[in-house]
Design goal:
Alpha/beta knot, 60s Ribosomal Protein L30, Chain: A, four-stranded mixed beta sheet, 35% helix, alpha/beta
């Protein structure tokens, strides 16, 4: 097993709490004793994951950063989910993030979507293995918590969703775009957000049922970055579904 090293309490707690990857062992600073460590020890015992209490210097040499807090875990790369295996609610809130290549920014998007109650995320197929340690840290562990589907054919994936009654809603400025506050975001939907450089692909644009924009109270015409747009749009979905339309 090609093992990655996940650092810090949030990342390690997520690695051992969810079954998105195979966990090798956990190292904990032998001089530390915290509530997070108690949780990790108990969870590892339940899951029969090996734990080693190590000297701080040994952990520091193995860790890539300085924010590990004396806790690291060795685990495989993530196992991704299949669309057909998801158990979705009647009106699912799904998201597609496209063209966000920086793992810090993608992690921030994932963290925001988890906080907003997103039921699953779709990404274009790509090998994120070398960036997973960063993704776990920037997403505060939610990279392993949320169902994530990697699609090698977005047109086909979106057609499947549409066939199951999911509306494709894209953050996209067109002559027919609606302000997000005027659009109905209460039904089952896939919220599609593109990166600043390339935006959404033709496959996503062609599948779009509804284009929405974030209304500005100013004459500013610049687009928000993907992280900011994700936060604004995701919590507009939350607002509407809470009955505050």
């Amino acid at each position: 097993m090609n093992q990655l090293c996940f650092e810090g309490a949030l990342s390690v707690k997520s690695v051992i709490a969810h079954r998105a990857r195979t966990v090798g062992e956990v190292w904990i600073d032998k001089a530390k004793d915290t509530k997070d460590i108690d949780y990790i020890l108990n969870r590892c015992k339940t899951r029969h994951i090996a734990v080693k209490r190590m000297d701080a210097e040994v952990i520091a040499k193995k860790a890539k950063g300085k924010t590990h807090g004396g806790i690291i875990a060795f685990a495989s790369s993530r196992n991704y989910d299949k669309l057909e295996d998801l158990h979705l609610p009647e009106a699912p809130f799904l998201a597609l993030i496209e063209g966000v290549e920086d793992p810090f920014n993608l992690g921030y998007c994932i963290r925001t979507l988890r906080a907003a109650g997103c039921d699953g995320i779709i990404l274009a197929k790509r090998d994120w293995t070398s960036a997973e340690e960063t993704l776990m840290k920037s997403s505060a562990g939610t990279f392993d918590e949320l169902p994530i589907i990697q699609s090698d054919n977005l047109a086909e994936t979106l057609a499947t969703l549409k066939g199951n009654g999911v509306k494709i809603v894209s953050a996209l400025r067109t002559p027919f775009s609606q302000p997000m506050t005027k659009a109905d975001l209460t039904s089952g939907l896939l919220l599609c957000i593109g990166g600043e450089l390339r935006g959404l692909s033709r496959a996503v644009v062609d599948a779009t049922d509804l284009s929405i924009v974030i209304p500005y109270p100013t004459t500013t015409k610049v687009a928000l970055n993907a992280v900011s747009a994700t936060a604004v749009l995701a919590f507009e979905v939350v607002r509407q579904r809470a009955g505050a339309v």
